[in-house]
Design brief:
Layout lengths: L1 E4 L4 E4 L8 E5 L10 H19 L4 E5 L6 H10 L3 H18 L15 H13 L3 E4 L2 E4 L15 H7 L14 E6 L15 E3 L1 H13 L3 E7 L3 H16 L4 E7 L2 E3 L2 E2 L10 H5 L4 H9 L7 E3 L1 H27 L6 H10 L1 H11 L4 H18 L6 H18 L13 H15 L3 H13 L2 E6 L2 E6 L1
Parallel strand pairs: 3-4, 3-9, 9-10, 11-13
Antiparallel strand pairs: 1-2, 5-6, 6-7, 7-8, 11-12, 14-15
The chain binds zinc ion (ZN).
Zinc ion binds next to α7.
Length: 466
């Protein structure tokens, strides 16, 4: 597989450090709100990278952090009169819900800043000991100029950076380019941890250096995130980690492009700011995923209702092809004829086409085209009277490719079941336990009116939504 490496600005053959386990780190969300469609892109893109590597037989260890210590979280907690911990816990839950709707799998590890405070403090201390950082009145700053290769990822010259940098009034930096590793507590209601420099909390960049090295080791295969993170976040991560370990931090850096809304930059002030939760009111999560994968991940994409409707239609065409095949399987019989065997050989060529596209720097746009070409040929090749075996082979070819893209997942019966329904189901269970059968039947009818039927299975109640 070839991957475009931001570090070298080239498409390179991907050679993992350890063939048996590929190590990927993706910068995760700051959990103070529902995530927006710009955030959704890296989640979906790098989840697809993971699914593809797994499809090619690789084991992947995938780490994506939750930033649960941040000014935005603290401000939100003040606004709502709850604790920062309550804010982050709530939005971690909301993250899982929306990511789940987009078929984004949970990472192997989702570490949080609050759970890694000792490691963060030890890392910062080590940077001071190694001469790359200094304490200033309870703050700790990274001495950017000490790291000779600073700017290598974003291809910026340190002198140019210096001329654009400024020191904010309250900061105690020695050089405008230095950045905070540790921030002293300013007011008493601010979140703070004990450290060798007094009460305070970590700066933003240090967490990723710490969690990546802790969970994946000193050098990892791929570090990924949105293009906007290249500078300063990823540049600073490199400076911190390579100064501490003396080794390359990540061999490949992958960055996805921006999203515009109706050809404009997304911003709250323009009123074109959408969370994924907003979009899910009108579209299925898979439509959003299809939309995000329909362009190359490094190209900018434009979000509009019109394009979402196109994505919806595209996805429906795929689903129709599957439904037709399921119908043929139900009504067909027998094994493949000689003609079908020949047809299958030519249909299987689309697998190679699909793989070639994905191998070319995760070209999901071309991979989706290969699926559509496959579907078109399957529609021509199958008919009433096709053998059951042939229809099954055709269906599994479609499933094989769409599963890699995270599309057309068979919905679990319990998906989409809202709290109210869940509560009714639980209440009915209780009623049955208490032998209050009239109430149990009443609830059953109530659910039926909502299009919900309940099936008793050995594994428990199965909720079926019609
Ligand atoms: Zn990060």
């Amino acid at each position: 597989m070839k991957i475009y490496n931001t570090l070298t600005r080239k498409k390179e053959e991907f050679v993992p450090i350890d063939e048996n386990e590929i190590k990927i780190y993706v910068c995760g969300p700051t959990v103070y709100n529902y995530f927006h469609i710009g955030n959704a892109r890296p989640f979906v893109v790098f989840d697809t990278l993971r699914k593809y590597l797994e499809y090619r037989g690789k084991k992947v260890k995938f780490v994506q952090n939750f930033t649960d210590v941040d000014d935005k979280i603290i401000n939100k907690a003040r606004e709502e009169g709850i604790t920062p911990g309550e804010v982050s816990e709530k939005y971690i839950g909301e993250y899982y819900q929306d990511a789940g709707a987009l078929n984004v799998e949970k990472a192997s590890v989702h570490p949080k800043v609050t759970e890694n405070m000792n490691e963060i403090i030890a890392f910062v201390k080590d940077l001071i000991d190694k001469g790359y950082a200094y304490e200033a009145d309870g703050d700790v700053y990274y001495s950017t100029r000490k790291f000779r290769e600073y700017g290598k990822l974003s291809k910026q010259n340190i002198e140019d950076l210096e001329s654009g940098a400024r020191i904010e009034i309250e900061e105690k930096k020695q050089d405008p380019l230095d950045f905070a590793l540790w921030k002293a507590q300013k007011t008493e209601d601010e979140l703070a941890w004990e450290s060798p420099w007094g009460l305070g909390r970590p700066g933003w960049h240090i967490e990723c250096s710490v969690m990546s090295t802790k969970y994946l080791g000193e050098t990892i295969d791929i570090h990924a995130g949105g293009q906007d993170l290249t500078f300063p976040h990823h540049e600073n991560e490199i400076a911190q980690t390579e100064a501490q370990t003396g080794k390359p931090f990540a061999n490949y850096w992958m960055h996805n492009g921006y999203i515009t809304i109706d050809n404009e930059k997304m911003s709250k002030s323009k009123g074109n700011f959408f969370t994924v939760r907003d979009i899910l009111k009108d579209y299925d999560g898979e439509v959003m995923r299809f939309f995000l994968l329909s362009g190359h991940y490094r190209s900018p994409i434009n979000f509009s209702r019109e394009l979402m409707d196109q994505a919806k239609n595209g996805l429906a065409r795929m689903q129709n092809a599957k439904n037709n095949l399921k119908h043929l399987i139900q009504n067909g019989s027998g094994t493949m004829t000689a003609e079908e065997k020949t047809q299958l050989v030519s249909l299987e060529k689309y697998r190679e086409k699909f793989i070639a596209a994905m191998d070319d720097d995760l070209n999901t746009a071309d991979a989706i085209s290969a699926v559509f070409e496959l579907i078109k040929d399957i529609n021509t090749a199958t008919k009433n009277g096709s053998s059951k075996e042939f229809s099954e082979k055709c269906l599994s070819l479609i499933d094989e490719m769409t599963a890699v893209l995270g599309l057309l997942r068979e919905k679990e019966a319990s998906d989409d079941i809202d709290d109210e329904i869940q509560k009714l189901v639980e209440e009915r269970q209780e009623a049955r336990k208490a032998k209050n059968f009239s109430r149990a039947d009443e609830i059953r009818d109530l659910l039926k009116a909502k299009g919900i039927t309940l099936e008793d299975t050995p594994q428990g109640i199965r909720i079926v939504k019609s």
